[in-house]
Amino acid sequence: MREIRIPTPRGELHALRCRPGDSEATGSPIVLMHDSLGCVALWRDFPIRLAEATGREVIAYDRLGYGRSAPYPGPQPSDFIEQESASFDAVRKQLVLDRFVMLGHSVGGCMAVEIAAHHADGCEALVTVAAQAFTEPRTLDGIRKAQRDFAEPRRMARLATYHGDKAEWVLRSWVETWHSEAFAHWTLDEALRRVACPTLAIHGEHDEFGSLAQPRRIAALTPGPSEPTILPDCGHVPHRECPERLIDAICPFLDAPASA
C-alpha cells in the first residue's frame, strides 16, 4: 500500500495504491471513485480486500476538496459530475494508466460513468455501486434526513476527522447541489449511452438514497448485463455493509472474457 500526491492545475490530490499482497498484480488496475461525503480513508479496508480478491492493483484518490486533497477553489459547480473527468486526466497521466477499470460508489458511480464515456480508449470495464442515474424524491429525502442528522455536533466532528476544515464545504456542497434548480431534471442518460465497455450496475435492496429504478436505468443504457445485481438486505454502502458479497459480485464480472 503506497500513498502518493498527484498535481493538478487546481491543487494536489491524495491517492492510495494497493497491490495484492506480495504477488505481482495482473490485469488492468481498478480505480475507485468515492461518494459525496467520502474519501480514501472511508473506503476502509475495501481497496486492499478488492486487490487481494481480484489480483489487480486498486487505486483510490480523494477528489479535490475532500479527504487529504487540496481544498476546492470556490463553490462546487452544478456540472461537478461531468467535470471530474478533467481531474481524472491528471490521475491517468501521472499514474500512466493505459488500460483501467472504473468502480464508483454513489455519486462516484456517476463520475465513473462520465470517465468511462470520456476515456473510452482506456476504460475496459465499469462497475457502479449505489449510483444515481437521475434525480428522484428518494434521493432528495435521504439527503435532507442526513442534513438534519449532521446538526448533531458529534456527527460534524466525525466528518471533520476525515475532511478537516473542509468538512463544512463537503456537507454544504452535497446538500445544496442536489437541491439546486440545475439538478431538478438532471439525468446521466447522455453519458450512459456513450459508455462502450461492459458495465455492471450493483445496488442495495434497501438503498435509502435511490430506488431500484436507478441501477435498472444504468443497466438498460450500457453494454453488459441487461439487469442490475441487487444485494439483498443491504443499504447504500455495500462496501461497509456487505463487502464480501460486493466483491463476490465484482470478481466474476471482471474475470469474464469481455472484461479481460
Automatic annotation (TrEMBL):
Q: Which residues cross the membrane?
A: none
Every copy of the AB hydrolase-1 domain together lies at 29-239
Q: Name one Pfam family in it.
A: Abhydrolase_1
**Which top-level group of life is the source organism from?**
Bacteria
UniProt cross-references to InterPro entries, sorted A to Z = AB_hydrolase_1, AB_hydrolase_fold
The protein's name in its UniProt record: Pimeloyl-ACP methyl ester carboxylesterase
* Species of provenance: Halomonas ventosae
